[in-house]
Write a structure and sequence with these properties.
The structure holds two protein chains of two kinds.
Chain A (H helix, E strand, L loop, with lengths): L2 E5 H11 L4 E4 L7 H9 L4 E4 L3 H13 L4 E6 H6 L1 H10 L5 E7 L13 H7 L3 E2 L4 H18 L3 E6 H4 L1 E6 L15 H4 L3 H24 L3 E4 L2 E9 H10 L3 E6 L1 E3 L3 H10 L2 E5 L5 H8 L18 H9 L26 H12 L2 E3 L24 H13 L1 H5 L1 E6 H7 L1 H9 L5 E6 L28 H7 L4 E5 L4 H13 L4 E6 L7
Parallel strand pairs in A: 2-3, 2-4, 4-5, 5-7, 6-7, 10-11, 10-13, 14-15, 15-16, 16-18, 17-18
Antiparallel strand pairs in A: 1-8, 6-12, 9-11
Helix pairs in contact in A: 1-2, 1-7, 3-5, 11-14, 15-21, 16-19
Chain B lengths: L1 E8 L4 H14 L3 E6 L9 E9 L14 E4 L2 H4 L11 E5 L6 H4 L9 H8 L2 E5 L2 H7 L5 H10 L6 H11 L5 H12 L3
The chains are: A alpha/beta, B alpha/beta.
The complex binds iron/sulfur cluster.
Iron/sulfur cluster binds next to loops of chain A.
Chain lengths: 518, 189
């Protein structure tokens, strides 16, 4: 058996390949991006693609699965919000070829707008969810997930967090399983969710839950590691490693399948120890469940609810050990090192002009979100992918067209394609007069320069149709669309001043390649 | 068990240095784990890797107060990891100043007393002047490997293991340069 040092995300790509996966679709998002990039680079038997957004990616993978292929969809935690609609209904239809969703949470919000805990999705959508604790398990669990998906005819979510996705460890490598693509069988009762089909399906998946819970107890994904009987700690994901590190003598119930939770095992574990603890990152997901089973546990009363856990946090909470400082506090002020736009970044020109005109700026998600920081300080709202344009219209609705005349929405090319087109339709349809700047840097820069429909290249490196942003804007009814090079700041200032004062919708496409894009 | 922190600024090659160490440790039969902070680092932010190797490694993250080595590629960055020091920790610091954004735009000053503070407060600190080594290697880009060379003096591994790992991880045309950088770094301590 060969083994290799791998990143968690690389290990997932490997696991999918070994499982015989045929199709993979996703949208870039830290910390999930490297999974599809690795597939495109190293495992080209899998047809991998970037979709315009996570909803489409999930639907492409669902379609592939129903058509008989083993398929994978990858996205970051907030991406699953975008894909939540198909998620819930494909939970009812089930699969044909195994269907696995990899979902990467970001406790600590290292590169995200929130710290949502996506374990709740498994419970809400009633889907089995696995959670590895290391890169080695990331490979193993991804393979297992395909097996479970086909065994129970359900979509399976593998949840990872930043510390799994972006940590490396030794991973054992196996061969690719030869799994033929099955035939597509027309079965509207299974695949067309009209109410008459959905109701019995709902019943069926509720009934099946007991069977999956049995599996959760017996599969080995959840396991008891008996140690001292005084203290028993239930833990999952990366927190398991911290617990093993700082409490090596305690009993541990390791949760590798976070939904459905293994009630029998929890009972057995609780009966075998004097005091029960739950150590988990973010929400009290396991803790609430165990409490609802009637047990007294220590959990979020000693483990923080917000942010990432670390070994020292767990050590202090469980053992009362405080970190001993070896050196005194430095008395001076240490400047931070916040990320910033690269020198010569095309977005910087745009922000210089916007700042000069002192506009209200509805921002969006990408490198350009850094426009909120000095020296630009030129962003005043930002929420999620595509929000800038809808919020821009909302502000105009609140205050009238005068508001639009001193405001602007800024959005990147990839984000516009992801979810900026529908709000632009709204802006035209509902008689907004605002100006939208599409900062077209010819790439999806923030997540590491991925291709998108407007770059004319696919994830696999093939040439393809290059989406024409100008034509799209015109097609949805924006009559004033101007394309300029932002490096000419005087021209940009002139154009922007004109467009914001014109009482009709307008789009300025500032087109200049990101300096780091090859 | 050994716990090593590499830290520096985006673009300095922190992740590659940690990869080379991992390869060497794995080849010597150790379990290895690493944790890295990606994300916005590419835009000039701080970058950090934790590498741990030993019989069996659980946490990829090093606990505060428990680093055996901290290798900082930049002066100011070394100050961000002082919580991880204990009385035995060896701190290797590259004597180089890279101004962060708040200094560049003039709202803060780059502290001028870092070296002095480190020498006074950290028992096992070595502030390394890497300039000549980089000139010798013929490229500033090899700073990560120079620092790794310095670290290697404190570790048990064979020189040939380091060379093999570098060969496996660096593009062929840069191998010679990097091995030179490694040896020059090794001679710095
Ligand atoms: S990566 Fe490109 S788009 Fe992002 S900050 Fe740098 S130059 Fe700008």
């Amino acid at each position: 058996m060969t083994s290799k040092v791998m990143l968690g995300n690389e290990a997932i790509a490997r696991g999918a390949w070994e499982a015989g996966c045929h199709v993979a679709a996703g949208y870039p998002g830290t910390p999930s991006t490297e999974i599809l990039e690795t597939i495109a680079a190293d495992y080209r038997d899998i047809k991998a693609q970037w979709s315009p957004n996570e909803k489409v990616a999930l639907e492409v993978a669902a379609g592939a699965s129903i058509a008989g292929a083993r398929s994978l969809s990858t996205m970051k935690h907030v991406g699953l919000n975008v894909a939540a609609d198909p998620l819930f209904t494909f939970s009812y239809t089930g699969v044909n070829g195994g269907f696995v969703i990899i979902n990467a949470d970001d406790p600590g919000a290292w590169s995200s707008q929130n710290e949502q805990d996506n374990r709740h999705y498994a419970r809400a959508a009633k889907l089995p969810m696995l959670e590895p604790s290391s890169p080695a398990e990331a490979r193993e669990f991804t393979k297992k997930a395909f097996e479970i998906s086909e065994k129970f005819d359900r979509t399976v979510i593998v949840r990872i967090t930043t510390r799994i996705a972006h940590s490396q460890g030794i991973v054992e490598l196996g061969d690719r399983e030869n799994v033929p693509v099955k035939d597509f069988v027309r079965d509207p009762k299974k695949y067309v969710m009209i109410p008459a089909h959905a109701r019995p399906k709902h019943k069926k998946i509720e009934e099946q839950q007991a069977e999956i819970m049995d599996y959760s107890c017996t599969s080995g994904l959840n396991r008891i590691e008996w140690g001292g009987k005084k203290r028993g700690i239930i833990t999952n994901g990366i927190a398991y490693q911290y617990v093993k590190e700082v409490c090596p003598d305690d009993s541990v119930l390791k949760i590798g399948m976070v939904w459905p939770l293994p009630e029998k095992l929890i009972n057995e574990f609780a009966a075998g120890v004097e005091e029960l603890y739950v150590v988990e990152e973010l929400d009290p997901f396991i803790e609430d469940y165990v409490k609802a089973m009637g047990y007294e546990v220590k959990g979020k009363d000693i483990i923080p609810l917000c942010g990432e856990l670390t070994p020292e946090i767990v050590d202090e909470a469980l053992n009362g050990n405080k970190t001993v400082k070896a050196v005194p506090e430095y008395a001076g002020d240490l400047p931070g090192r916040p990320p910033g736009l690269c020198k010569g970044c095309p977005h910087a020109f745009v922000f210089d002009v916007i700042k000069k005109l002192d506009l209200n700026v509805n921002g969006d998600i990408g490198c350009y979100t850094l426009g909120v920081l000095p020296p630009y300080s030129a962003m005043h709202t930002q929420g999620c992918m595509g929000a800038s344009i809808g919020m821009h219209l909302g502000m105009e609705k609140a205050h009238g067209p005068e508001m639009a005349a001193k405001s602007v929405a800024v959005i990147g090319d990839s984000t516009f394609i992801h979810s900026g087109i529908t709000p632009l339709i709204d802006l035209v349809y509902n008689k907004g007069t605002g100006t939208v700047i599409i900062m077209d840097n010819r790439t999806t820069a923030m997540t590491g320069h991925q291709e998108n429909p407007a770059t004319g290249k696919t994830l696999m490196g093939e040439e393809t149709f290059e989406l024409d942003l100008e034509a799209i804007c015109k097609a949805v009814g924006v009559k004033r669309v101007r394309v300029i090079d932002p490096k000419d700041k005087d021209e940009l200032e002139k154009v922007l001043s004109e467009e914001i004062s014109t009482r009709e919708p307008s789009v300025i496409i500032t087109k200049r390649k990101c300096i780091l894009k090859r | 068990m050994k716990s090593v922190i590499f830290n520096g600024v985006g673009g300095q090659g922190v992740i590659l240095a940690s990869k080379v160490l991992m390869e060497v440790a794995m080849k010597n039969g150790y379990d290895v784990k690493e944790s890295e902070v990606h994300g916005m680092a590419q835009r000039g932010g701080s970058v950090e890797c934790n590498v741990r190797f030993g019989e069996k490694v659980y946490s990829p993250l090093i606990q505060k107060g428990k680093a055996d080595f901290i290798v900082s590629f930049e002066l100011l960055e070394s100050m961000r990891k002082t919580d991880y020091l204990n009385d035995d920790t060896v701190l290797l610091v590259n004597r180089e100043q890279i101004n962060p954004a708040p200094v560049e735009i003039g709202v803060m000053e780059y502290p001028s007393d870092i070296e002095e503070w480190l020498e006074k407060n950290v028992k096992n600190v070595k502030i390394l002047d890497t300039k000549d080594a980089l000139i010798g290697a013929g490229t500033k880009k090899a700073l990560n490997i120079v620092m790794l060379g310095s670290l290697s003096k404190y570790l048990e591994f064979e020189l040939s293991d380091w060379e093999d790992a570098i060969k496996g991880l660096v593009k062929e045309q840069f191998v010679e340069q990097n091995i030179k950088a490694f040896n020059l770094g090794r001679a710095l301590v």
